[in-house]
Amino acid sequence: MTLFKTVEPAVEPVTLSEVKAHLRIDGTSEDDLLGGLVRAARQDVERSTGLALIDQSWRLVLDRWPASGTVPLRIHPVREVL
What we know:
The protein has 82 residues and is of the alpha+beta class. The chain has a domain at 8-54. It is built from 2 helices and 2 strands, in the order βααβ.
């Protein structure tokens, strides 16, 4: 069983302006770094909890259908199965 992310989240759970306000940063020289840190933090939380914080699309590939007849999904919540 292999999961492939097909569509990355369109936004992050925390906006750049929220991060800058929290850190009391006025300039724009650190914007790329802060954006990368927010993205890395979200990915780490999602990886460790199995919880998708933002809408995203995944593709599940199975070598064969499980004998039990059920497929456990490691990422949740699930909105739609196609």
